[in-house]
Amino acid sequence: MTADKKTLQAVRVLAKVANADALAPQIVAQDPPAYKAGEALVRVRSAGVNPSDVKAALGLMPQAVFPRIPGRDYAGVVVEGPTNWVGKEIWGSGGDVGITRDGSHAGWLVLPEAALREKPKRLSFEEAGSIGVPFITAYEGFRRSGLPQAGQTVAVLGANGKVGQAAVQLAAQAGASVIALQRGDAPSDQRVKGVHYVDASLGKVAETIRQLSGGKGANIVFNTVGSPYFEASNLAMAKGATQIFIATIERPVPFDIFTFYRGMHTYVGIDTLALDCVHTNALIQAMHDGFEAGSLQPFQVTPDAVFGLDQALRVYKEVLGGAKRRIVFNP
Question: How do residues 136-145 score in pLDDT, each as one tens digit?
Answer without folding.
Answer: 999 999 999 9
